[in-house]
Amino acid sequence: MTQIFAHRGSSGTRPENTMVAFYEAERNMADGIELDVQLTKDGKVVIIHDEKVDRTTDGKGYVKDFTLDELQKLNAGFFFQSGKFPDKIPTLEQFFHWFQRTEMICNIELKTKTVTNHELEEKVIAIIRAYGLDDRIILSSFNHYAIVYTYRLAPHIETAPLFMEGLYMPWIYAQSIQAKAIHPYYKVAPKTLVQMSEKEGVKVRPFTVNQEKNIKMFMEAGASAVITDYPELARKVKDQL
User: Structure pTM?
Assistant: First the structure.
């Protein structure tokens, strides 16, 4: 059966990439949580999507220019529903402290563009190991150099390339970089691609699948998971099927 991954937590109903969004994902019986990580000025791994804090918090500037203490003074729920759910930018360790007590899977997206500096990947893997969560983690990225690096560093942790383009036989590409899954943008993942990839043993987890008809299509096609802002809706569709 298709699993339900809450995209940046239950980000359709709570501020994205916050603990309140992750708690809501668990309440909605999501099978997994997808989140984004990057480094602070002082080298801490924090959970936030954009390079800048401007869109999601009451601050301005690049994440990499803030220390952790400075970042955690910001309100990560500032712009969501008129600040109804105030919360801090969490660290990966703060998230894991809670997450290890759940039964969910976590898809960590590595927000990195460099092909030479692997500090983020190394720190993320060190934290995963410290919490003993190797078998409950999937590492994904649009930076496929980062994916290959993490595979070499920790071959037992599942990896999945993210992509937005229509690729020819993407399961072949995934196998060539030792990835067990692909995470395509849902518009470039037609039903036949899903079925062929799954048949070849490469899991498909399309993002971001928010419409009921698309959730249903991917579930009927046998996708391993859907990554959605609305896990509660996806659960309803799954229950109906």
Answer: 0.98
